[in-house]
Every structure is written in C-alpha cells, then in structure tokens.
Amino acid sequence: MASNRQIGIAGSVAAAGVALGAAAFGVFLSRRHKGGEDDAPKFTRRSNHGDHTLVGRSVTIRKPASELYQHWRDFENLPEFMENVERITKQGGPKDRAVWIIKAPGGSTVELRTEITEEVENERIAWRSIEGSDIETTGEVTFTDAPGDRGTRVTLIIEYKAPGGALGRAIAKAFLREPEVQARHDLKRFKMLMETGEIATSARRKSETREAKQQENA
Amino acid sequence: MMRALTWHGTHDVRVDTVPDPEIINPRDAILKVTSTAICGSDLHLYDGVIPGVLPGDVLGHEFMGEVVETGKDSTLEKGQRVVVPFTISCGGCFHCKIQQYSACENSNPAEKQDMSATLYGHPMSALFGYSHMTGGYSGGQAEYVRVPFSDVGPVVIPDHLEDDQVLFLSDILPTGWMGAENAEIQSDDTVAVWGCGPVGLFAIQSAIVMGASKVIAIDHFPHRLDLAKQLGAEVINFETTDVREALMEMSGGIGVDAVIDAVGMEAHGFAIDNMLDIVKQTVGMGADRAAALKQAILAVRPGGNVSIPGVYGGMTDKFPLGALMEKGLKVKTGQTHVQRYTKPLLDKIEDGTLDTTFLISHRLPLEDAARGYKCFREEQDSWTKVVLKPGMAQEAAS
C-alpha cells in the first residue's frame, strides 16, 4: 500500500509538472504568435504554421520603387526571372485575373489561377488563388524605400498549402523547386535584371543557358 | 572548337578541345586570349582543396587578349587589346557603387550562390575559372573566353605596352598592391611580408613605393628570397632562422608595424599544428593551414596592422584570437577589388614606377599548360611565374 501511495504522490507531482510545462508552453507560443517579442518579420520565426507554409524573402535593389513596381505589376514579365513559372497569361477583369503555368516534379505542370486582392501603386501588390487553381496560395510583394540612395527594399511573402502535404513538399524539395529556395533565387534574378539589365549566367554557349534548357524541357 | 586547359581531378589538368564561347548576354564580349598566367591560387584547385570544381571546367583567371566579338551593350570595340580583372563585377549593385567590386551581388548566378552563402553567411561574387562556388565561369587558359559585364572590368591597353608588361593587372599586381594598402603603411614603418611568391613580391614592391622604411621578406626558397632582395627587401629564411626573434631584433625590439600574409591556406612550415592541419586538409577535414598567419599575428607590434591577401577558404584550428584582441590589432583582407586599381596601376607601369616583367620565369604555349602546372607546383624556387601563350609555337617556349 505504501508503495502505491508513493507512486500516487510521485504521479501527481509529475502530472502537475506536465500541466505547468504545458501552461508555460502555451504562454510561450501565444507570445510568439502575438509578435510582441521582437521586431523581426513573422516569416523569420522558428514556428510551425500548420499545413500552411509561409515563405518570405527580401532583397534591396538600387532602383526607384516605381520602376520595380511597374515591372512586377505586369505579371507577364515574371517568368523571365521566376525559374519554375513557364508562362503567365492575363485574363483581365476588375481583379486582373491571371493563369500561371508552373512546373511541377516529373515534367508535369500545375495551374495557378489568381486574382489581385490589393494594390497600392509603387508600394504593394497582393494576390490569392481562386477557384479552379491547383494550388492554394496567397502572395504579396512590397516595395519600401531603403535608406539614402540604397534603392528599394523588395519583400516577397508567399503562403501556400503544399500539394500532397509533407509528401508533396518532399518531392518538391527533391526537385529543387522548394518554394523557399525558389523565392530566394527568383528575387536574386529580379535584382540582377533590374540592376544590370541581364540575368547572370556562367554558360559558355547559348544552348547551355537556363532559358535554353527550360525550352528543351517544356 | 577551341583548345582549353580543363580540370579533371586532383593533379590532373589537360588541354582539351571544347566548344567555343558565344555571346549570351548583351554586355558580354568574346576575347581571343593572347597571354594567360597560372596563378598560385590555381594550385589550390590543382591540389583539390577548393570545393565545387567539376571535371571539364576551364581554369584560368589571369588573362588578356584581343576583343573579337561584342554584345550590343558592350562598350568595347573589336580589335582592342584588354586585360580582364579576375573578379567579375556588374558595376551597378550597392557594392560595386562603393568600389567593393569583389563583393558584387549580381555576377554569381542565383542558383550557384547557395554554397558560399551557407559557408560564409553571404554568397561570394563570381570569379573566372575558379569553381562553381564562384559561379562556374569558364576561365582564360583557353584560346577564347566569354567576358560578362565587359563594359565594367576590362581595361584597354595602349599599343606600345607589351602583354608581359600589363598581364598582371588582371590579378596579382592589384592583389599585391591592395595587400600593401591594407597594411596602412606610414613612412617610418617596418613591414614584414610572408611568402615571396608573385603576390608577396608585388606586395613588397608596392610597400616600397608606398614609402615603408623597411620591408622584411620571409620565405624558404633561395631564388624567391633573391628576387625579394633585388626589389629592396631584407630577407629571412624561415627554415634556418627563428622568424619572430629575428623580426623583433630587426625592428629594434618593437615588433614590425604591419604584417602581410601572402601565403594563404596551403602554408609550408614545420610547426606541429601545421603538420596536423596538413593531415586534416588531406583527409578532407577541411582545416586551412594557416602557419604564416599565426606567426604574423604573434610578430606584429601591439596596435599594428594585419593584411591578408593570401587565400583562405574554410576554418582553421588554434587561431591566436587572444593575441589579436589583447594586442589591439587591425585586420584587413578580402578578394581584391581589382577594378579599383587597374587604371592607376596601368599608369604606374606606363611611367616606369612599377615593372612586373622580372617575375616571369617561363613562357609556354597553351598546349604545355599541364606541364606548367606540374612544374609551378613542384619547382617553386625556379618556376616563379608561368605565362601561357595560346598563339605560341611549341618549339618557341622560353
């Protein structure tokens, strides 16, 4: 009996410990999600967003915001620096609907149908996927003046529900089309294009360039 | 098709027939290479201690030639003779605008930036013929080479100057010069230079031009020490002399005011920790051998300057961090911002302040490039600098 009582005491102490721990964790989590703890952008947190993935990246480009905004706002310009976007076709309408043909693992493509949800000239363009789209996603790009003559800070944030959940992400990663890597590379190419008028390639011949290979695979 | 020196593995380079380069981007130019040198840092590739080199890669980052084709936005003209900086820089990004050309943000293709970004926290900019970590661009040890951003890097050479007089503007002369500049030499200073290879010798020459009162050169190859002496340096042979003791005495018990490490990651030397580093580097554990730098940090006077033009790529063990802090040293280093120096140094060559031709020990046809690598590595005393001439007949080698 004595031993049972001991277990009982130990058990309740342990249970209390777990409960305290859970409470502390809860407080910790809510603090993190409230964002009151530091000034870093939400997408840099080491947190889990459930089955949604949040990807964000910034670059600073030595060009005025208006020039960068204008180039981005014409969605048909995006495939030039977005590696996995084969083409974008404008559909028009009040919300500027567009169809994006995006490369997927195994040589297939998926279709993303979007509409603009908000735009502030020279500052922000936001979009979301609509019915008939293969991917559930929202995205936004913001253009903010950088200090002095450093140009414009461009931030791209994409939230998406990965096709096929964890498995889909694993496949995407294996094909180097993981959105986080993709967003990083795409923004670098956007910067190259705007600052230098071209996208850097170390190819020795035209047939070895990214574009040539892209056309070959298409 | 053209002939080009290609990498196939550790101590295996060959002259192969490969496809000619083409104009790809609007700011490109194509050069017909007339002279190209083997650099000490090419030996790091040859020794297999730089990651990201693939079989078939064309090496070479010191080259010059004649413009034979231009993209629509190139500012060069066909027929011009140009020397090309080994650093590829766009001229338009933040770093290029403040003349930190070797930190260019746009020259390394986006998909090649991840490796160095992971290693160093930031991606490296692109270099010619120096692994895929720095872009995977084909180098200039070839008959032809594609030069991106040809409106920014290449410097046009007047007809009356020979290739041999100006070729080193591509890398080692500006690198030696920046090495001396980073030592922030004042007129009464004593400066010690580790390594009398090409960069070390040019750093010695530059330090003297900048007004150092005394330059002390440290090496163990007699011929290289002789060259240093001819340039006006006092010399120390580290195999026979206690370097730190000697430097203290030669600077009147103060210690030298500035030190320049022109050796880098494959330092020779017999200190126990260097031997350990050699073993680790050989088995791929990746520690840089930094014997020269460690010695330099102990030898420099408190408050002195440490300049590191020598190349390092990874980590090093037992770094004398305490000495660095407690003595209040200032460290300056980095890949050379070549474009900052090409024109001023071309002027110094033209007016006779700098002569770099003394360095060239061997001129070989491109076809003999593999032998050039082997001898440059194995006979460092007599093979001080190899210049490859793609147009040279094989029997004319000197």
What features would you describe in this structure?
The complex is a heterodimer of chains A (218) and B (398). Chain A is of the alpha+beta class and 218 residues long. Chain A has helices spanning 2-34, 65-73, 165-174, 179-196, 210-217; strands at 52-61, 85-92, 97-103, 109-120, 124-129, 136-145, 152-161. The N and C termini of chain A lie far apart (76 Å). Mean pLDDT of chain A is 79; it is low at 1-35. Chain B has 398 residues and is of the alpha/beta class. Chain B has helices at residues 40-46, 94-97, 114-120, 163-166, 172-181, 198-209, 222-230, 243-250, 272-282, 291-299, 321-326, 338-350, 369-378; strands at residues 2-9, 12-18, 29-38, 62-70, 81-84, 87-88, 126-127, 144-147, 155-156, 190-194, 214-219, 234-237, 256-261, 300-308, 330-333, 362-365, 386-389. In chain B, the strands form 4 sheets. In chain B, strands 3, 4, 5, 8, 9, 16 and 17 form a 7-stranded mixed beta sheet that branches. Chain B is globular. Classes of the chains: A alpha+beta (218), B alpha/beta (398). Chain A binds chain B through residues 60, 62, 83, 150-151, 181, 184-186, 188-189, 191-192, 195-206, 209-210, and chain B through 18-22, 24-27, 58, 73, 90-94, 97, 105-114, 126, 132, 135-138, 146, 148-149.
